[in-house]
Amino acid sequence: MGWTSLLNGLGGTVNGSFFQAHDSVDTTRQPGITRVQCPETLSDTLRPIITGQAFLFSPNSFWFLLACFVWWLAPYQLENQDRRWEDHLRERLLVNHLLSFGYIGFWHVALYWWQWGQRPYSPNRVYQWGKVIHNMFYTWLGILQWSATEVAFISCYQTGMIPYRHEKLGFEDPTLLIQTLLICILLPNFRDVHFYFSHRLLHARFLYKYIHSVHHRNNDIEPFSGLCMHPLEHTFYFTCYAPCLFMCWHPLILFWMGVHVVLSPAASHSGYEDHFSADLVHYLHHQHTDCNYGVPQSIPFDVWFGSYRGQLYSSSGDDDNHKTKSATVDPKARLGLIPDHPIFNLSLGLLWCGVWYFRSTTFATWPLTGAMLVTLGPVWMAWLSWWESTLRMTTRQRSFLAPFDKDPIWSRVLHLSAGVILGVLPATYLVYLTIL
Question: pTM, whole model, 2 decimals?
């Protein structure tokens, strides 16, 4: 038994390689034909999580080692109380840009320039510089916002608004070390829960039209499309930090969460089948938009709620529901002089700038009002914009909750409430603490 066999599956690799299709993929057939199998029962889901297999034999363990290395090089500077927030922001921007653009750029170059991947889901794609620049721009906005989020946490740590463990991680305090390690192992699974509900909320018609549609400009996805989102979607996507707002944990856990939210979309949005983080399930989501809202290989909410697809097209080729809709280009993935829905985006920008400008005066007295304007205000604006547009239509429009308007009432209540609680309210609370 060679070393490659011993390493098979560790860190999500195949026989120790980052550039091989998973063992379950039938490489004698076209990419996308092999159906992705997911756990169907709660016990099938919990067993690999509890035993640690879901962490060790997935890319999560590789990303965690990378996070630990970067943390060792550039941890949060919490001891110096005299540092200004601008200094923290510059440092976090440098660290996060080097990490994110280095990692995402590697996958883009390796797959699309060096052609280390040989199994693209769309064999007729045309490389588009305009699309890549568009995706890099929105990725840059995401890194900027996550860096600002880290600075908000650092400020709240230093003022005592958010509790955290001050001790250094080491064998001198094995209890803290074990606690931190266990939490870090389980946090990706919490991210999967958070992603499903917050993502599905964004597919409600009024939020999809004004916000989430930016992400879906990429029908045939590539690594930089993973973080290509509207700034308001970045706000809700990053709220997986919610447990860190209340739990007295080591700051490494917040940093690890940030590394995971920034890096994990890169390879899963690759558009290729033969590498360690290939994700046909999410590729199908970009093809059809009405399926695979979560990560069913981890926690199969889509299987349980009937929104799962696991195959790009059938092996017989006669199943229209599974045929790829990829065109050779994605014409909407371009940076225009006037973005989609300019009135909504201008209003959002003015709202956020107004709250920031008056944060130390007006909203210092009413911090909760300012926090609700920043996070819940745009949701209300999107609903009003959708409602106003429907009044100008001559034909009857679908419900603002479409495509979920036909779901049972209990399902609508569950998904909307969980989406708001997990995806929106943590941002409200963090902005509230920052304004205080």
Answer: 0.93
